[in-house]
Structure formats: structure tokens, C-alpha cells
Amino acid sequence: MRERPKKYYTIGSIAKACDVLEMLATKQSWDLAELSRALKLPKTTVHRILLTFEDAGFVQQEQRGGRYGLSHKLFSLGSQVLGHSSLLDVARPFCKELLAAFDETVNVCLVSGIDMVIVDKQVTTQTLRPDNIVGASFPIFYSASGKAFLAFSEEPYIEETLRKIRTDTWPPISDQAYAAFLRELEDVRKTGLGYDYEELFPGVRCIAVPVFDRSEKAVAAVSVTAPTTRLTRQTTEKIERALLKTGRDISLRLGSNHPLFRSMAD
């Protein structure tokens, strides 16, 4: 788990409680001693935090003295947030069109720190398919959505995110891999498309395009994910064209007329 920088306004007990929630989310259930070791916190501290969350309905214990896990209350809260998002309301019909055209999984991703999080998806009907769920996250450094989003972000944000990627990614990124990533961002700015060449999962590739709002700011990415065996050159080219059109159409609905899409024909 990444260490949070200590700031003057940080409330230590809340920061620890957030760490507990994040660690709980990585497994279905945890033994108290196991959880305290993973967090490097005293058992008494972790236990008090768990009991507080249990009283609030965020954590449930399997039985008295048993293992702890997250309840569905957090999912419910997250769903309410997403339900208020006009971005998803706008994007969903276009993503369904992509699904209908290629029968490959389509994801809408938002940034969270140095990760991209799936906030909406349209799932292929094919048996061989990616098994990612809404709420799953992937490092910007390795994901097509992350590359598409970061390449078109504002310069100060790019610089800060790149700094965090270098300091917070584990295992550490080599100088050679970092230089290749920067070159890849330059390519994304030319084509509008980010790629994942099995960097996250063997046998699975992804292509992504950024989405812009009325201030011409990158706010999301839309991607198509598929097994490498189905992404022939011809299919890939069709998906690339369709993704660029989808990114343009969603951005237009959000009030954007970004230069990336201005020269595109229907």
C-alpha cells in the first residue's frame, strides 16, 4: 500500500481508517492478526477501527471472533455517485454501439491517483473475455486508458503524475521503461489512441481513446479490451476508427470540440 504524504491538516486516525478500508478491499475477508500485520498497525488499533466501521455498516464479521470483510454499503455509495454522473449517461449509448459493432468488452475509465478505475462497462457475449469488474483499477503506466488519458491531460498535472509514477510504482520502473513510456505518450498525442500490449494481462490487449469536456480537459477514457487472438490487423484498424469516432461523439455531447477530433469525418 502506498504511503500517504503527511500534511499539516492530516488527521492520523482517519488516515489509518482509510488504509484499513483499502486493505480490506483487496481480499474477501481478513483475520484480525493478518490484517494488522499487513497494515503494520497494532491489533488494538485495527480492531477499534473495524468495530467502528461495523457499527456504521461498512464492515461485517463472519461470526463472533471470526474474519472481517467489507459490506456492500461502500458499493452502494459508489453506485450513487456514479448514478449522478452525466458523463456516464452520455457515454453509455455510444459504448453500447461499440459493443454491438464488435462484441468486445467496452470500458469507461476515470483517473484515481496514478491508476485508472473502471466506472462503467459493456460486456462481450463471447465466452473468452476479460474478467474485470466495475471498480477494478489499473496503473496508468501499463494501461491503454491511462496512456490515452495522461497524454492529453494538462501539463502541470502530467508532470506531477509522472513524478508520482516514478516514486510510487512497485516494483520500480527502470529508466529505459520510463523513457519508452514518454515516447509512447508522444505517439498517443499524434494518433489519439493508447495501447496496452499485454502489459497488464498475458493474452489480453486494449485500445483506448480520451474523452474531453467543454473546457477541452481530458476527463475519462473509453477502451475496447479483447483477447489478443481476436485482434487481427483488420479488426484492430476497425476498432481504432470506431473508438476515435466514439471519443469524438461523447466529447461533443459534453460540449467539447477538441483539436484531436476536428479533422475527423463521419
UniProtKB/TrEMBL annotation:
It holds the Pfam family HTH_IclR. The keyword Lipoprotein does not apply. PANTHER family: HELIX-TURN-HELIX TRANSCRIPTIONAL REGULATOR, ICLR FAMILY, HTH-TYPE TRANSCRIPTIONAL REGULATOR RV1719. GO terms for molecular function: DNA binding; DNA-binding transcription factor activity. Signal peptide: none annotated. Residues 73-256 form the IclR-ED domain. PROSITE patterns: HTH_ICLR, ICLR_ED. SMART domains: HTH_ICLR (SM00346). This is IclR family transcriptional regulator. Residues 11-72 form the HTH iclR-type domain. One of its GO terms (biological process) is negative regulation of DNA-templated transcription. InterPro entries: GAF-like_dom_sf (IPR029016), HTH_MetabolicPath_Reg (IPR050707), Tscrpt_reg_IclR_C (IPR014757), Tscrpt_reg_IclR_N (IPR005471), WH-like_DNA-bd_sf (IPR036388), WH_DNA-bd_sf (IPR036390). It comes from the Bacteria. Keywords: DNA-binding, Transcription, Transcription regulation.
